[in-house]
Design brief:
Length: 263
């Protein structure tokens, strides 16, 4: 169950959404306008906001930008406008997903769950694994070759963002928007400096990358090291990794955490 806030001006649609989401076990609050939605999102602290774009007082995209200035709450934008440039714009403005009207309650519920799972808001996201690197977003712990890696909160968020998209090049702009909540960009050096710290803690360098690969002028990607070519260990003197990766203590800490559907 999640605490949801539905911002929707159409009373009929709002009622239908509330019933459908409550039937699926969520607690649902509503707001009929942009300003009321903004107020409720900030004061009542929902787990996720479903935000209509076509609102009578303030455009939903504007509401999203104002909300992002003060809150990281996950947002799914719901809109009748099937307009790709606009969808891209709201995603760049910090929406976590979008859904085009008309949509079924099952689809919305699935998207709500996917966003919450991805963001670890329900604490049930499985640890992300890239090669011998494990990023646990629930406990916010990172291990490399079985050894704990001590990261600052920002370094952790940066690594987790990349670990959710292994092998994909992520732009500095996206990182600034998603990790630093600076959708309008900022000093490019911010990202590079944190990447450099992260590299050092992962025992690698930009010249000899293992996991973090900078793609010139485009961005950065996280990939598992190519195990087909012998790897020369990085000259890491600060954090030894004493345990070999093939521990027999097979980790049985991944029980089936799926919870039965309500209703
Ligand atoms: Ca509307």
């Amino acid at each position: 169950m999640a605490h949801l806030l539905v911002v929707e001006d159409d009373p009929q649609l709002r009622g239908a959404l509330v019933r459908a989401l409550r039937d699926r076990g969520h607690a649902v609050a509503t707001a009929p306008s942009g300003m009321a939605g903004l107020d409720a999102a900030v004061t009542s602290g929902p787990d996720l906001v479903v935000l209509d774009l076509g609102l009578p007082d303030v455009d939903g995209a504007q509401v999203l930008r104002m909300l992002r200035a003060v809150s990281d709450v996950p947002v799914i934008v719901a809109t009748a406008r099937d307009d790709e440039p606009e969808m891209v714009a709201v995603l760049e403005d910090g929406a976590d997903d979008y859904i085009v009207k008309p949509f079924g309650a099952a689809q919305l519920d699935a998207r709500v769950k996917a966003v919450l799972r991805r963001l670890g808001a329900t604490g049930t996201e499985e640890p992300l694994r890239v090669g011998a690197l494990t990023v646990d977003t629930a406990s916010r712990e990172v291990t490399l070759d079985g050894a704990a890696v001590d990261l600052t909160p920002r370094e952790f968020d940066l690594l987790a963002h990349l670990a959710r998209r292994p092998g994909q090049v992520v732009s500095r702009r996206e990182l600034l928007a998603e990790v630093w909540q600076q959708p309008l960009g900022g000093a490019d050096k911010t990202v590079d400096v944190h990447l450099s710290w992260l590299r050092r803690k992962l025992g690698e360098t930009a010249q000899r990358p293992r996991y973090l690969h900078t793609v010139r002028t485009v961005g950065v990607k996280l990939t598992a090291p190519d195990t087909t070519t012998p790897h020369r260990p990085a000259p890491d003197t600060t954090t030894p990794h004493p345990t070999p990766p093939d521990t027999t203590a097979a980790d049985a800490s991944a029980p089936d955490t799926t919870t039965p559907e309500h209703g």
